[in-house]
Amino acid sequence: MSNITVCARFRPLSSKERRDHGDSVCIRCIDTETFILKDEKEEDVMFSFDRVFCEKSDQAEVYEILVLPIVRDAVNGINGTIITYGQTGAGKTYSIEGPGILECGEQKKGILPRVVDGIFEHIKHDKMAKYSIKLSMVEIYVEKVRDLFDLSKDNIQIKESKIQGILLSGATEARPIFFL
């Protein structure tokens, strides 16, 4: 079973950022766990995480290192959660979806389509088990929980049950059922 892993991912500069500021960046990656941030006073501040994905890290690398262990756990019946956090424009949607959830090629597709592919890849070899797969996707923004499968559900309530644990009451569950 996987433990909690805290990572930082830095997206490449946008064309607007390059136009306005050139190629200068305030982040310098040292290794796969450490980066240096140049603060407002032009002083270097070092940060360490379980993993640092620099601007050249591709979607497949993020999936294989960070997400694949969660997929393996999910296939073994252990719930998995991926939380992306950051300010607007930081690259959360790009990491999760890729440039477009249905419009991008294998190299640029995000975590979500890779998770779905990975789950089915893992279970297709198990001829003895029956699987029921449920997937919910929500976004928490300005303290409201929004269903990403049904955008009209924009204030989902979070409830806790002694038997079922944390519940997102009313969240849409994509639920394809496959019998192998």
Would you kindly provide a brief summary of this structure?
This protein has four helices and eleven strands. It is α+β, with helices and mostly antiparallel strands.
What does this structure look like?
- The protein is 24% helix and 24% strand.
- It is of the alpha+beta class and 180 residues long.
- The protein has a domain of 54 residues.
- A three-stranded antiparallel beta sheet has the order 2-3-4, with no helix packed on it. Strands 1-5 form a two-stranded parallel sheet.
- Helix 2 packs across helix 4.
- The protein starts with 6 loop residues before the first strand and ends with a strand.
- The model has no long low-confidence stretch (mean pLDDT 84).
Structural class: alpha+beta
C-alpha geometry: globular
Proportion of residues in β-strands: 15-25%
**Structural Rg:** 19 Å
Tell me which oligomeric state these chains represent. single chain
Highlighted features:
three-stranded antiparallel sheet; 180 residues; two-stranded parallel sheet; single chain; alpha+beta; 11 strands
